[in-house]
Each structure stands twice: as C-alpha cells, then as structure tokens.
Amino acid sequence: MKKDDQQRRDMALEKANVLMEAMPWIHKMNGRTVVVKYGGAAMEDPSLCREVIADIELLKLMGMRVVLVHGGGKAINQLLTQLNIPVSFKNGLRVTDDATMEAVSEVLIGKVNQGLVWSLNEYGNNAVGVSGADGKTLVCRQVDPDLGHVGEVVKVNTGLLESVLENDYIPVVASVGCGPDGLYNINADIAASKIAQALHAHTLAYLTDVDGLYADINDKETLISSLNLREAKELLESGELTTGMIPKITSIVEALESGVHDVRIMNGTFPHSLLLECFTDAGIGTVFYQE
Ligand SMILES: Nc1ncnc2c1ncn2[C@@H]1O[C@H](COP(=O)(O)OP(=O)(O)OP(=O)(O)O)[C@@H](O)[C@H]1O
Ligand SMILES: [Mg+2]
User: Fold this and answer.
1) pLDDT (tens digit, 9 = 90+) per residue, 166-206?
2) Of ligand 1's atoms, which has the minimum distance to the CA of residue 75?
3) For 30-289, which CATH superfamily applies?
4) 43, 116, 224, 243, best to mutate for ligand 1 pocket (most atoms within 8 Å of CB)
C-alpha cells in the first residue's frame, strides 16, 4: 500500500474510533434532558457562537431533549453604558431599576434570544424562542427591594417547554420572568437551574468564559476538575466565592439537591467543549456530582 493511502486509512480509522468512544455516552444520554446555559464572553464572538450552536444541534440529533437558557450580561452592560444608565451588582446580582429592566428585556428577548434562534435554525429549523414570561414559565417574586426588578423564581410552569420539546423543537429561553407587577430580571444561571429541576434534567451545563471553577481565580493552576455536593455546599458556605460564581454555585447546589444528576461548568470559548464534556471520558471543565 502507498504511504498516502495508509495515511488516509489511519485518519479514517481515527474518526471511526472517536465515534466509537462516544457510543456508550450517546446510548446513556439518548432521550434524556440536557439544559445548557450559555452566557458571558463566550457569546460575544460570532465564530465561537456558531461552534456552540453546532454542538447544541448535534446533542439534539443524538437524541437528547435540549433546552438552551441564555444570559447576556455583557451585552446588557454595553447598552446600559450607551444609555448612561449606571451598572451595579450586589452579591453577583444586577441591581435592576425600571430603566435597567427595559434594557434587560430589550437585549435578552429582543436581541440575544432572536440571534440564538436564528443561528440554530440555520442548522435544523428547530428552535423556538421564548422568555420565562411566555406561558408563565418562570413565575417570580421580588428578591429584595434594594435590587429592584430582580426576580426569585417561585414556580416553574413546564407546560410550554414540554410541548415545545414534545414537538421536537429546542426551546431557547431568555432569563426574564413574570411577577405580579410585570417583568423580572432573573440571573440566567438560576433560571437554568430552576428549569433543569422542573424538567427533571439529567445534566445541566454552564457554558461560560472561564475553564471552570478555580480554587483561586487569580491562579490558573487551581482549576477544580470535580466537586461533590457536600464540597460544593462547603464552598458556598465558606463565603469565599465572588461575583458571577455566587449565583452559579448556589444554583448548582440546588440543582443537585433536587435530583439533577450532574452539573458542569465549561469554557464556551474553547472549541466543542460541550461535546468533550458530554461524550468523552476526559471532561475539561468542572463537574459537580451528587456523591
Ligand atoms: N472561583 C472562580 N472561578 C472561576 N470564575 C470565577 C471565580 N470567581 C469569580 N469568577 C468569575 O465568574 C465569571 C463568570 O460568571 P459571569 O456571571 O460573569 O458570566 P456568565 O454567567 O457565564 O454569563 P451571564 O452572566 O451573561 O449569564 C468569570 O468570568 C470569572 O471572572
Ligand atoms: Mg452570570
């Protein structure tokens, strides 16, 4: 056999081996619900965004019931800055006055949600955009008067999401909910966790702009590859967490306590991290297990 032919055969064999490695995972995950939360800088770059969208489409083609929940913190900050509205956070949650709430819905529902739906539909024409206010999916009450329109989810009505999933579509959910007096801003990590709990999801995956959870955010050598529920709770109670990791770890603990099998934090700016996490032995981010 010529050297070129041998090389081509080896490459083809390598591809077949990759598919075979994924087979037990595909078998295990078939028919299961996976909630993917997409946020942070990972959403800013259109070419990275296309890769994430392709991964999500592939999960669906492999038989998973996929729900995509998105944030849009960076895009919201950009609009607020343009409008000269101050950006302010308390314990990782955005202080949301009336003007900020208007900007949040404009960005999340009007722009980010529609952009994600459009991108997914370029692959398979099977995405449906909703906000948590549609079908009263995410029912909220005010968290704290100092935070304005920040909502705490008190109930998830799964009817709309279930019917979208049953009809073989991917629901794309903007993390806005409805309260007694209008729309509420919900941290997207918390929204994703509440939805995962209500749908009895197997896996909840957070795609963010860091590789995972660091023991020390200033030292990239301290990436934690796995934590069990007890360890995650201890970390939360230690008060060491800051900024966006507070709602993330809070919502992870809650998801695990409510029966979600595993929760993962991974870097959405790293090509195909979602596939690597879901279909290979070598997860690359941080995985949280019950035990
Ligand atoms: N211990 C830690 N390990 C990793 N990241 C941390 C840690 N502590 C704080 N962070 C910060 O958390 C950020 C991710 O959360 P952030 O809320 O900013 O983004 P997101 O949740 O992915 O997106 P969005 O808020 O738009 O939905 C990282 O960029 C990082 O700076
Ligand atoms: Mg966040």
Assistant:
1) 999 999 999 999 999 999 999 999 999 999 999 999 999 99
2) 26
3) Acetylglutamate kinase-like (3.40.1160.10)
4) 243
